[in-house]
Structures are given as structure tokens and as C-alpha cells.
Design a protein that fits this description.
The chain is an all-alpha fold. It has two domains: 1-77, no CATH class; 79-143. The protein is built from six helices and no strands. Helix 1 (10-18) packs antiparallel against helix 4 (52-77) and helix 5 (81-107) runs antiparallel to helix 6. The protein is flat. It starts with 9 loop residues before the first helix and ends with a helix.
Length: 143
């Protein structure tokens, strides 16, 4: 599942332009169906906002989330072991690499990983951990 907050999605961009007060309320929430439904209701209650374009954007976001969920469910139900294990092993690999870099930075005095690699590793780990743990939580709740 996507780990972006509402403010970082197309819905957030629309709200930033058309309904900043609504964005302040829901901007830091994860865009699951419940939050998107709340956004729809808040915008629909304000007669000064034309919400037709927002409804289209929200429907696209929900379709995107459903597509990710279906892919993850298909991966989990397949007989191919690699497909089932790729996410946990990616998580393990990034964790091991992070620990290796951390130990090397502490043990070897001249070791300084380039800042670009550190920021790339940070972004990749946030994506992998967020998708795995937040996505798995959402999948389990839906079951």
C-alpha cells in the first residue's frame, strides 16, 4: 500500500489549491478509503467548492490502492516461492545493509559513506518498511 500521506498525493495537491482548511485536518493521515471518504464529505459540505474534480481524483486513488492490494494478494496466493518471499527478503537485505554501514562507520575511522548514498538508503528503507508494515497491517485488517 502506498505510504504517502494525503498531503503528498494528487488529492492533497487539489486540497492545497481549493480547500486548504480541509488539508490542514487530514493532511497527515494515510489515504485509505476511510480518510478519503471523510475528505469527500468535508468538501461536499462546503458550498463554495466545486468537488466534482476531487471525486474523480479520489476515485483514481482508491482504484490505485485496490490495484496494489490485488497484486499483493496475488503474490501471496501464488505457488512461486520467490514471489512470496521477495518483500520480506528485501526488508531483511536493507536492514542488514544498514547495520553493515552503521558498524563500518563506527569501527573504521576513515569510513564516510557519501551523503547521496545515505539519503538514497534512507528513502529506500522508508519505502520498503512503510510498504511492508503499513501494507501488511491494512491487508490483515481487511481480512
Amino acid at each position: 500500500m502506498p505510504t504517502k500521506k494525503v498531503k503528498d498525493t494528487k488529492v492533497g495537491q487539489w486540497l492545497r489549491e481549493k480547500a486548504p482548511s480541509v488539508l490542514e485536518v487530514v493532511g497527515d493521515a494515510l489515504p485509505d478509503r476511510g480518510v478519503l471518504g471523510v475528505v469527500k464529505n468535508l468538501v461536499d459540505r462546503d458550498p463554495t467548492i466545486d468537488s466534482a474534480s476531487l471525486h474523480k481524483i479520489i476515485d483514481e486513488e482508491i482504484a490505485l490502492q485496490d490495484g496494489v492490494t490485488r497484486r499483493w494478494e496475488a503474490d501471496a496466493s501464488t505457488d512461486v516461492r520467490l514471489t512470496k518471499l521477495i518483500r520480506p527478503w528485501t526488508l531483511i537485505a536493507y536492514s542488514a545493509f544498514y547495520m553493515l554501514i552503521t558498524v563500518a562507520d563506527g569501527v573504521f575511522e576513515g569510513f564516510n559513506p557519501p551523503e547521496d548514498y545515505v539519503s538514497l538508503l534512507e528513502m529506500l528503507m522508508l519505502t520498503v518498511f512503510g510498504a511492508y508494515f503499513a501494507g501488511r497491517t491494512v491487508e490483515k485488517i481487511k481480512r
